[in-house]
Predict the structure of Probable Ufm1-specific protease.
Amino acid sequence: MEGETGRCVRVLCPKKSLLSSKNPGLRWLIGSPLFLPPFTVVSSFRCLHALPDDDPYSPDFAKEADEIRMLLLRGFNIIGALFVGDGNWEKCAWKAVEASSKMRKFLFGDGDCDLIGAVTDLITDDIHFFVSHSTNVESMEAVSTVVFEDNPETYVWEKGCLLRCELELKLPVFVPLDKTSEIVSSLVDEAAAKLRDPYVAYLVEGSNVDTDELSRSIVLHGMELDSKPDHSDSMLLKASMKESGAKDLACSHFHLKDKNISSSTIRENADAIQIAVLSNQSRNNCKSAVPVAEYFPATEYARNLNVNFKLDVLCYASEDFTIAAALSKLVIPGLIDQLNSIKKAVIPELLSQQPQLCPYHFLPPELLHPVTAIYDLRYGETEMKQGEMRRSLHSRLGLPLDRPLLRIANALSFGMKNTKDTHSVKYGSSLLKNVHTEVPTSGVSGGIISLIDGSYEYYHYLLYGFDDNGWGCAYRSLQTIISWYRLQQYASIGVPSHREIQQALVDMGDKEPSFVGSREWIGAIELSYVLDKLLGVSCKIINVRSGEELPEKCRELSIHFQTQGTPVMIGGGVLAYTLLGVDYNQASGDCAFLILDPHYTGNDDLKKIVNGGWCGWKKAIDSKGRNFFLKDKFYNLLLPQRPNMV
């Protein structure tokens, strides 16, 4: 073991994600040696499968590789491992390096390269990093400089882009019952080999998500691609840059870059270079022939099968990487990997009900890069088998186990034209978000602040020119609450308009048909009905006889924000507010309420909203003796519950 090195490890994922589990085991460190600086950690995947002796530090490499190969985009790779547990740091770091080296070979057949070995200190939560230039322990060095980036998305997306290829294969086959698996497996292997056929054509098109400009497109043939196996990450990019010719257009030629691209914009509408596989059936053939049909009588029982494969591969590359290199080194290997993965799942069930496997791509808020999950559509999303699979994925990715981040409704959308009406309440992407982050302190001395957990949009009077002044405050509070469920990905429906809210109440029999289109008020009870009908969300309701009793509920509200984290609607008299948090001193009883006021009628000027007190801390009785909550009015507090689901 040598001394400390001047090398720098750069960590883009939050440190807490590396420390998310206190259980002994390994976490695979994910990076992009081909496109990002060396020793740059983008994310980490938890190792879930150990050998039969249940040693958490002895991974079942075959199982781990099969699952991670489906999950991880080509363009990313394992660059090391994190050892979670006690012991000698150097020895543990070596175990991590050794495991990650073996894992790379199982995963993509990669040879030895520079790797990171990291070790956590379970007492102090410190992480100690080491680097190795080979699998020889003598070359390992401690790292003196570790940088946790404040703006990690810049490193991934400033010069990065996505490539996507969809391919549907249909293999009709007539096979003997006792040779079904063997023959189908052979046909799939032949189909995989044809992806590298010199006469296969690849149509490459740029995406036009946010522009009317004609897309740029080219066609490349297999003979123009470098299909020779080469696993040297460091040399590949340099080689691709030295090539010349039309086939060596860079990915930037097809990728219309948005200056404000980020993980959040990708979640809303992913922009990817689109690639289609075309089989060239019209190429010249030196031999002229007429169609010939031959008859082979079956000598044993046989069966006609139609085996379908739906492939959808997403890859990551830098903009200056040539499109030919991206096809040969990322897209085609990705298609072959996915085809083989689906083949393993389909073949055992060929003679029963075939799995309906379909890939989906996700970018949960906790990750910087997309991942791919393959779901069996024979099972509904609420069925146990699908739930168990999503729970396993959440555990591997370090995602919370009470949020549906990997449901099909939350999969990335690609190539969708931006046709939504900018004045549509349904989407509301242009609305102000998280207004409370700019408000001054509450003035409560020694209090504990409990706030909403997550993002929301601010809905208020006259928004988008709809005149609800004097009657629509509860509707606006409900819209803010539903926006919270949308932004936390519990729901995929649009935020309903006033009329849609009224129609929902009529549909469930709570109101008469004449209620639709009226200006009648609604309260906490009606809001709970709508949340249950539209989102399946349950609510608690707290009744308070007088506004002066509301401070007595601060402890209960504090617990709500700590455990549920959802916005609360407060309705009293003819007024409704949205509560975003409380600041409560249990010893003195002093408290303040963080109020988002839907009665604001101006434009979405954050400074004006905060300075005008439309979002801010309110005490039940202010310094001038004025009551914010009325003594002679009763109040209902609606506490929506966070669904416990994945």
User: Anything to note?
Assistant: The chain has three domains: 4-150, 160-281+299-410, 435-640.
